[in-house]
Amino acid sequence: MEAGIYLAWQDNNIVYAGETGSLRGRMHDMMDTRHHNLRRHIGFELFGETASTTEKFTDEEALDTFIRANISITSMVVKLGRKELEESIIAKFNPKYNRKGKRGK
Q1: Alpha-carbon distances, residue 80 vs 32, 84, 86, 98 (angstroms)
Q2: Fewer Cβ neighbours under 10 Å: the N or C end of the chain?
Q3: How far apart are CA 32 and CA 11, in angstroms?
Q4: What is the model's pTM?
Q5: Are 29 and 12 in contact (CB under 8 A)?
Q6: Whole-angstrom distance, CA of residue 98 vs CA of residue 105
Q7: Are 78 and 3 in contact (CB under 8 A)?
Q8: What is the pLDDT of residues 13-66, one digit of tens each?
Q9: Which stretches does DSSP call E strand in 1-105?
Q10: In what order do the strands lie in the sheet containing 4-10?
């Protein structure tokens, strides 16, 4: 399992940037609301409801359909400096679904 960064795109714009220690594992997590903020943000935007680490959205099928039709994901293996690269992408492109500010602040 390789570490790296990944970008979510919508209409040729970066809407989310993330880094992970396992690209394969993170791609799996993105298909489960309980494990990924991108899905939570999109779900809230679409349905006006929130999901948590224990509860999914009421219409997961509609959320999956929207993501598959409108969001594309690219990833890149980065062995060192992935957090710094992620932060520089967020600072430069201000993705719609990333939280503002640095992590842990």
Answers
A1: 27, 9, 12, 22
A2: C
A3: 23
A4: 0.85
A5: no
A6: 14
A7: yes
A8: 999 999 999 999 998 888 777 778 898 899 999 889 888 878 888 888 899 999
A9: 4-10, 13-20, 72-77
A10: 13-20, 4-10, 72-77
- Alpha-carbon distance of 66 to 47, in angstroms, equals 12
Q: Are 95 and 15 in contact (CB under 8 A)?
A: yes
Location of structure tokens 């598959």: 68
- What dihedral do alpha carbons 77, 8, 18, 52 form, nearest 10°? -130
Looking at the DSSP bridge assignments, the partners of residue 6 are 18, 75
Write out the two tokens for 4: 């790296």
- Are 44 and 59 in contact by the 8 Å Cβ rule? The answer is no
